[in-house]
Design a protein that fits this description.
Two copies of one chain form a homodimer. The first copy, chain A, is α/β, with parallel strands linked by helices and 344 residues long. The first copy, chain A, folds into two domains: 201 residues, Alpha-Beta Complex (Quinone Oxidoreductase, Chain A, domain 1); 134 residues, Rossmann fold, CATH 3.40.50. The first copy, chain A, has twelve helices and 19 strands. In chain A, the strands form four sheets. In chain A, strands 3, 5, 6, 9, 10, 18 and 19 form a seven-stranded mixed β-sheet that branches. Chain A has a six-stranded parallel β-sheet with strand order 13-12-11-14-15-17, sandwiched between helices. Chain A has a three-stranded antiparallel β-sheet with strand order 2-1-4. In chain A, strand 14, helix 9 and strand 15 form a beta-alpha-beta unit. In chain A, helix 5 crosses helix 6 and helix 6 packs parallel to helix 7. Chain A starts with a strand and ends with a strand. At the A-B interface, strand 15, strand 16, helix 10 and strand 17 of A face strand 15, strand 16, helix 10 and strand 17 of B.
């Protein structure tokens, strides 16, 4: 089959790889009708060291089940499924607590010996714990929105949930990428009435407004902080959803959070240290978040996607075939595209 | 009257200062039957620059009301009261939310123009919002435990509450000072069945065991981390209460926290940066806590102190008169005393 590999910064290729087959009785093999490129794929695309062998890419995909191992129940050939962006057994202590990203027998797509999602098919380890069956056919008009349950919408939701967003919470979302816009949508869905979106790409913040942002702050740094404070009577907001991953975004987050408030970070950290000094201690500011256990949220979010109450798939503004995935990376890195959908 | 001033590192003096009088209609004046020295007083005692004028010290005290301003209701001469370690109006948005440490009209004891607690009497700004009347006489045997409601027991409680401690939570407490021991007591009171106390002063950890610690880990650094992990099947504990304030304690906290767990810091930070890198992001670790809004907790904790269900006053292991406060500082700094009670 054909699949996507990265050989180093700026060097993404679509190549022939072995067809996936069942290896363990807990595996499934799925054909991939839709996958996509993640903002976090752009970090290796920007900076990965060159390798001879190449690494498989992609961690967000829908599947159509082709084959299941002997220990997999509840799934059969032809089922349409969504795969969260890590695989997990569904039975260990962490999985039962809803922290499948720390599963004792789980792992990452594209790790050595594991397929990536940006290809024609995938061997799914721990298939029963990992995959969620969707009540749609593979011609459904909802596929794009359903695909966001694999990562980006669940990641926005994780930010909102861990920050304690609810009807009485004021919210700032930092970043107008697909995660930031998903966080706006998630905060709105959880009842937040005031959502300030910090972002400076007008086409993106326009979609953010449609998703529920009540105000947009294009300014960055100290100017952006001052603007959010001005909008909130000097206090900042109860919840800040940091959807970028750069140190500057964390600094902004602490600048716009209200005393006693929560910063939730879901942007993959490109920093090591965070300034959490005595001033933040005196303000009782919390830093939470982390990698989203998407698997924990899919059943909760699915009904709203199925009935159209939310349309997170609107973050996709370009669709490519598998052969054009390298150009999809280029377009996202160049900010020509917000998020690229792949139809293999 | 006589009161305590600090003139620089190691230089604490008891001197004559003006008697407190009502200045604002929201003030009260209280005589101080008990106060104490806080672990956080040892930071300036270790490192404060020399000054000519001296700064007033002490932020934990009980009072006997002598006079109240015209706008203070609910308090009258002779009432025994406890003062939380910041004063607050009790009416602003932050106070109503239980974050009196961020009160819009509050402040710190010993700030310019404000008395410290380590003296014979105190002018209490915002007295009605600040003081809590105690149903005891000033000869009560409970005074020591009641005094801990001004700071140290509430601070331990804040650590436990913000870390989400409950019956199903495993807990590590870092630090065997008075705050650490109070955190043990608070965690036990909230139902935690397993409390690992990291501390290496045997007399203190012995009291920690009486307060509810189920295990004591005297080792520090990597060895201490390894020991806590060993005790918890490799996972660490759900909650970690960081009661020291040094960077090494924060590093230890992240080392012993379970994936998805919470580190709550209540030790006044002697650091600026915290390493919260991608590894902690992948583990969904939260850093919370901060300066404790003691005022928010006093009514909740008071009944258990009054009926003897908890005896937080056992952290006091030395009592001095006001004239001997400088020796009290010396003894605490030298670790001869755990916490020093002052009877002016």
């Amino acid at each position: 089959m054909r699949a996507t590999l990265i050989y180093g910064a700026g060097d993404v290729r679509v190549e022939d790889v072995p067809d996936p087959v069942l290896r363990e009785p807990t595996d499934a093999v799925v054909r991939v009708p839709r996958s996509c490129i993640c903002g976090s794929d752009l970090w290796p695309y920007a900076a990965r060291e060159h390798t001879e062998h190449g690494d498989r890419m992609g961690h967000e995909f829908l599947g159509v089940v082709e084959d299941v191992g002997s220990e997999v129940s509840g799934l059969k050939a032809g089922d349409v499924v969504v795969a969260p962006f890590v695989w997990s057994d569904g039975t260990c202590e962490f999985c039962r607590e809803g922290l499948q990203t720390s599963c004792r027998h789980g792992g990452q797509w594209g790790a050595p010996g594991v397929d990536g999602g940006q290809g024609e098919a995938v061997r799914v380890p721990q298939a029963q714990g990992t995959l969620v069956k969707l009540p749609v056919g593979e011609d459904s008009a909802l596929l794009a929105s359903l695909l966001t349950l694999s990562d980006v919408f669940c990641t926005g939701h994780h930010a909102a949930v861990t920050a304690g967003v609810g009807p009485r919470t004021t919210v700032t979302v930092i970043g107008d990428g697909a995660v930031g816009l998903s966080a706006v949508l998630a905060a709105k869905r959880l009842g937040a009435e005031r959502i300030i979106l910090m972002g400076h790409h007008k086409d993106r913040t326009d979609l953010g407004r449609e998703f529920g942002a009540t105000e947009v702050v294009p300014a960055r740094g100290d100017e952006g902080i001052a603007r959010v404070r001005e909008l909130t009577g000097g206090d900042g907001t109860h919840a800040v959803l940091e959807c970028v991953g750069l140190e500057a975004a964390i600094v902004t987050a602490f600048g716009v959070v209200r005393d006693g408030g929560v910063v939730s970070r879901v942007g993959a950290p490109q920093y090591v240290n965070v300034r959490m000094d005595a001033a933040l201690f005196m303000r009782n500011v919390t830093l939470t978040g982390g990698v989203a256990p998407a698997r924990a949220y899919i059943e909760e979010l699915l009904p709203d996607v199925l009935d159209g109450a939310v349309e997170p798939g609107r973050v996709f503004d370009r669709t490519v075939g598998l052969q054009d995935v390298p150009d999809g990376y280029r377009a996202m890195a160049a900010r020509e595209a917000l998020k690229v959908l792949i139809r293999p």
